[in-house]
Amino acid sequence: MAAQKISGPYAALGAHYAVHLPAPDDFAFWRDRARGLIQCDVPPDRVSWIEPGGTGDLFAAEGPSRSDKRMPSPPADARPVRASQHFLTLARRAALHTDPARFGLLYQVLWRLQQGPRLMEDKADSQVRRIEELAKAVRRDAHKMHAFVRFREVAEEDGTPHFVAWFEPDHHIVRAEAAFFMRRFANMRWSILTPRGSVHWDGETMHEGPPARAEDAPGDDPVEDLWRSYYASIFNPARLKVGAMLSEMPKKYWKNLPEAQIIPQLIAGAQAREAAMVAAGERQERARPVTLAEVAQGAAACRDCAIADCGTRAVVGEGPHAALLMIVGEQPGDQEDVAARPFVGPAGQLLDEYLHAAGIDRASAYVTNAVKHFKFTWKGKHRLHQSPSAKEIDTCRWWLDAERAFVRPRIVLALGASAARGMLGRTVSVNQVRGRPIMLDDGAELWVTVHPSYLLRLDGVARVEQAALFAADLAAVRERLGAD
Ligand code: URA
């Protein structure tokens, strides 16, 4: 690395600056101070970056509060500080590492970038490489947090459920990653406790709390049986690679993962299970569920198609177990996946309005979907709905049929073509079959109409026309319900 030319008024004065960061992950603060110091030509060896709880710098005369007061002010004609987007992205992440030298390193590279704006392209540069390593370690830690946080349910005094998780991050990622969990579990009340601080979401606001201890988090609860049966069902002994598994799921996290407790047993029985799987064929025979609780457990553990690995959980139906009316949608959406309930998002709200207007009480219907998992693709930070394929709908019929066999509704309302396929096992055109009942094998009537999300995508005259047809379809169903 070439020696840096030190120039400017502050360099000449030889002052040493101690910058006290208010929090170990405060990248914005570092950036602000770094920018000012660069504009004042303060070279890296004249700055100490001190984290809360860190030891002060012997050469910096000023204490924590005085140091900030004595920060130099950039001259009015100071040149703007240059930093590529690539540097900022890496630096933002690297700043969350626990390496005490990270802020100094970032400042050194920012300093050098002023003279060599292409520095970040130099993959052989040891400082650039070190920043990349730090950022990579932080990214990996965040990935582990996404994958290994497990919430345990506790009841608040007022009876509302609160989900609490314990996690031990290697780096200062908790605050940065809180947004991920907020999006994922927006409608839940949850807390993530860690030795580096805690975050709490009450459904509306995020709060930060002090570091916690493992004992502060609840232990086992029934939610864990689901994780265990889920993990056992996706564990494929034929693909067992212990090394790869350990690197993806380090032992350190096992104690927090209910499913990990069965790993030794799964490994031990892997060969026997592999032989049994070969004998039984890929798709193992499973007993048809006879209760809705069995449907819920079975669908949660089902891995018969690839969608099951997409969403957070299987969302099964809800409503009275002997409902006269069963309403079938396509698949849970983003909000349904988070809330674990069908039709709670925008399409569900529109459906509720139309049901109400037609005189149908949603609470008296059993509401479910043809497909139990949310199929989506990431677009930036958003999960975009993707339609299930005919094969996926057919595969999931096992669970829909089981629900119908249990509820035995007299009328089924299928919303959209996927729901109709889920009911009939073949594709029909909604426009050709709407407005009249189709007799099902058990004598129930199937009514098919459009999906409410179709209305949400329309506007103007088309929306008015389609809304009227939808309302008429619901009115016909209402009439049939009243016919008994
Ligand atoms: N769309 C559906 O088909 N089902 C839901 O549960 C939500 C949106």
Sequence-ordered SSE layout with sheet pairings:
Blueprint: H1 9-13, E1 17-20, H2 27-39, E2 47-50, H3 64-69, H4 85-94, H5 102-113, H6 126-148, E3 152-155, E4 161-166, H7 174-184, E5 190-194, E6 197-201, E7 206-209, H8 223-234, H9 242-248, H10 263-268, H11 270-280, H12 292-301, E8 325-329, H13 334-339, H14 346-358, E9 366-369, E10 376-379, E11 382-385, H15 390-407, E12 411-415, H16 417-424, H17 430-433, E13 438-439, E14 445-449, H18 452-457, H19 460-481
Parallel strand pairs: 1-2, 4-5, 8-9, 8-12, 12-14
Antiparallel strand pairs: 3-4, 5-6, 6-7, 10-11, 13-14
Explain what you see:
This protein is α/β, with parallel strands linked by helices and about 475 residues long. Helices cover about 40% and strands about 15% of the residues. It folds into four domains: about 15-145, no CATH class; about 150-215, no CATH class; about 235-280, no CATH class; about 290-480, Uracil-DNA Glycosylase, subunit E, CATH 3.40.470. It has helices spanning about 10-15, 25-40, 65-70, 85-95, 100-115, 125-150, 175-185, 225-235, 240-250, 265-270, 270-280, 290-300, 335-340, 345-360, 390-405, 415-425, 430-435, 450-455, 460-480, and strands spanning about 15-20, 45-50, 150-155, 160-165, 190-195, 195-200, 205-210, 325-330, 365-370, 375-380, 380-385, 410-415, 440, 445-450. It has a five-stranded mixed beta sheet with strand order 3-4-5-6-7, covered by helices on one side. A five-stranded mixed beta sheet has the order 9-8-12-14-13, sandwiched between helices. A hairpin with a 5-residue loop joins β3 (about 150-155) and β4 (about 160-165). Mean pLDDT is about 85; it is low at about 1-10, about 55-70, about 235-240 and about 275-285. Bound molecules: uracil. Uracil (URA) binds near residues 329, 330, 331, 336 and 347.
